[in-house]
Amino acid sequence: MSEEIPGPPGLPFVGNVFDIDPNNTINSFSHLADKYGPIFKLSVGGQWRYFVAGFEPFSELTDDKRFRKGIAPALKQVRNGAGSGLFTAFHGEHDWEIAHRTLLPAFGPLPIQNMFDEMYDIASQLILKWARNGPGTPISVTDDFTRLTLDSIAICALDTRFNSFARTEQHPFVKAMVDFLVESGNRQNRPAVAQMFYREANKKYNDDINLMHSVAQEVLDRRRKNPSDKKDLLNAMVIGKDPKTGEQLSDENIMNNMITFLIAGHETTAGMLSFTTYYLLKNPSAYRRAQQEVDSVVGTGPVKYEHTKKLPFIEACLRETLRLEPTAPGFSREPSQGHDETLCGGKYLIPDGSKVFCLLQKIQRDPAVFGEDADEFKPERMLDENFQKLPGSSWKPFGTGPRGCIGRPFAWQEGVLALAMILQNFELRLADPGYQLHIKQTLTVKPADLYMYATPRGDHTGSQLERRLYGGAFSERATDHKVEATSTQKSGTPITILFGSNTGTCEGLAQTLASRAGARGFAPSVATLDSAVDKLPTDRPVIILTASFEGEPADNAAQFVEWIGHADSFKGVKYAVFGCGHHDWVSTFHKIPKYIDKTLQDKSATRLTERGESDVALGGVFDDFDAWIDEKLWPSLGSQDTSVSDELNGLNVEISPPTRISALKHSVSEAVVESTAELSKTGGRDARSATFRLPTGTSYTAGDYLNVLPLNTPQVVKRVLKRFGFAWDTEITIKEGSHTALPVGQTSPVALVLSSYVELGSPASKKNMLAMTHLTEDDATKKALEGLATNSADSKLSVLDILEMHPLIQCPFGLFLSLLPYMRIRQYSISSSPLVDPSLASITYQVLDVPMAGAKDKHFLGVTTNYLKRLEPGQKAQIAIKKSHYSFHLPSDPQRPIVMVCAGTGIAPFHAFVEERAEKIKGGQKLGRALLFIGCRDPEHDLLYADQLAEWEKLGAVEVFYAFSRKPEDSKGSKYAQDRVYSEKDNVFEVFSNNAKVFICGSSRLGTGVKEVSKRLYAEKLKEKGENKSEEEIEEWFKNLKVQERWTSDVFD
């Protein structure tokens, strides 16, 4: 007896149409698979549609004795333009049989090899375009790869040149094709009766079809009028005969397949190259290995056909990309024997005549095949030896069986060639280092809004590259070291300042250093570390300012870190390093600054001075930086004046008449506030939540972060305006040549600059305080400032606070701006699950508003939490999704138990986890146990999400255990969360013996406490068995938990 296939409940008449996002159906199907499991069904258009998202049922569907290709509703619509072409023909359709048998030899190894020269010609046009546009021109990755692949299939298959690289706009065929595919997808979801009301869409649809047919007819007429002996696909169709029947293809069949080749032959390959580029740029070690493979095999001369067969890692990168992001995201299968079929050993019935859509993005990430890191880009698993060991149905991006993609060899040769040529000739980097992948979907998928920069390796010019591409190899790379950077025009001793920064702290330090260097007679330039790959200057000092993020480099420093590890020598480079880190990450504290410092020195670079460092957890990063540059850096550069006068080098500001202009740009997106809620507001604590409607195409996973770019409060902005005597609509212009992240060379409202660009509430540094002593003649004020500087580490006073407390300080406005750090993004754990609504993401936060020590009637206000508190539904905020480490996500096996320990707002990611588990239970999935330990102060006032957790506990999604620090008698005598873990040791032992995964979210003190309790429980368990281990052995056991990824934490202060 079969079971009912699960799926979401539908609505009368419309079924499940509202469960599907028409702009991103694949993302919707993916979320439904997460909720309902590896097989589910939807009611659309009055019919059941079945979906498979797991390897086990998919492996049965690929059995050609039981199932065959089914033409899904979307492909039926594509038949309007491509007819009975190879991709859209129904099973057994005569046109398909003739075309398949006729064309199969044309895709054999020798014909594909014969296309190499023409592929090379088109790829060379891409290379030359990038070289001539220069390293500072943003490249639309998918746009240029679409030009590449369209021109390649056109010239190789149809002997036609679209000359896409000579056009500003893409060829009209491309626009018509894309619009046609989008509308085909839209039409599948409309009732037939409704289609007549879409008159304009129908006209545009027919016009696009006519344009594609006219292009095909033009190509066919030209070949018939001018016969050729070229062995291309067009001739195979025009003069070829079916080896079985002797028939030739009709003109209609030829044109249908020409359109099919132009669509399928370029759209999916462009997506494959775009996704591969993205993954390589996000994984510098893979990028560097791929580039080194090309250098080793190809050298500096032209890429030849034989080279493409000797690049196994390039091929592995393409395979791994297509595993993660199959550009044709799925295909349909249907029973082939005229009767019902079953899946999963007879568990689920598939009625005869029904279609099953195979969701490749989920199938090819099945942890049962690829492990817990199935969502990670790891090309090594796709090297030939490993690839051949995979189960036969685990990798099917080109389809399966007789209806699999006939053009696979063409696409593969084109992809390997293009990647080899690009990596040989360019260093690539993302235009936005923080870019997170989001998808543009037609019937295929591509990355949306993906831009990068391409810098010719060795600074070769377009003409030099042209000689290489067409036969002239270089004997050696040029050594003209240049770094793309912002720089002042004034003369002086050149100095290069490189930064690696995610949140803006190190970038702000770099701009500050550049400003001070200019005042000391240097000519500074500022750039990201990644921009210095293969171009580290030897003719000037290089100052490196960078941070570590859980032991990893910043997004705009990852390629640099990878590169220096493989470079041979840095002889002639003179450098100094300053690093930022957080002491909570003990094992990786300052890992990246230390690595850069040691690697450069080990490879013959000259260290100018000892490495500087700051622990951001202590709040003294600016003082630490000031001390390092004054006491170490300037003396090492021969600038001996270590006074605070360089702090008085303010921005050159011109005050303009009041008007209203706004021109903000940030690497974040606007999201609409959906709702806000007050969670608790007693005992001085104010916990709240905010929910945002995400920008189209943005996705996340439970456990990820949401970054927020805040605004200062209107009240504090008014204080600045009052202090400097500005009207609210006063405008300022920061003149060209100023080293700053503020808008330069344009007029901006002063209130906008103050609210958006600078941290008005950030504590003043010791150097700030001492600098202000030079701005007053009043001895009492000087003495007060010197006293503040003595105790600056304990002070929360901002520059504004000090100016208000001491009105005799005469501080110019430009100087005031230069004393302030730039506005940084803040990171919050997402507290919602996308299974509830993938377009919404929530965060949980506690409003920071505390009395300021030593300052009567003043409060220290957290910039972001007070900004979030002010937000109201309907307002817009600037946010970005930040992916967390893959280990800080729910186990891929839903039956694996978990233990979660948190305190305060550290509950956020676990609220998301439990919400997701509840949704899976509602979808019919069986889950392992989940223990949630929550530390808070008082059961009457401090419980967050108590009602929801109680509801989910009844559902079986979680077991909740509280620890109340002020009423431990109400929590089994447990004062803190780690104490409650110990008191529930029997439960903990049970789930841990079943391979439970442990998650920690809270302060470093909580993390340390849970660690010690875990070690204690382990030791006690050993004693029960009569075993004893030393403290060192127990510590080793705990370290192995982390290595095995059974223990993962997100700690903060």
UniProtKB/TrEMBL annotation:
GO cellular component assignments: cytosol
Amino-acid positions noted as binding heme in the UniProt annotation, renumbered to this chain: C405
The protein's enzyme class: oxidoreductase
Residues of the FAD-binding FR-type domain: 666-891
Co-factor requirement: FAD; FMN; heme
Family of this protein: In the N-terminal section; belongs to the cytochrome P450 family.
Identification of the protein by name: Bifunctional cytochrome P450/NADPH--P450 reductase
Native species: Rhizodiscina lignyota
Organism placement in taxonomy: Eukaryota, Fungi, Dikarya, Ascomycota, Pezizomycotina
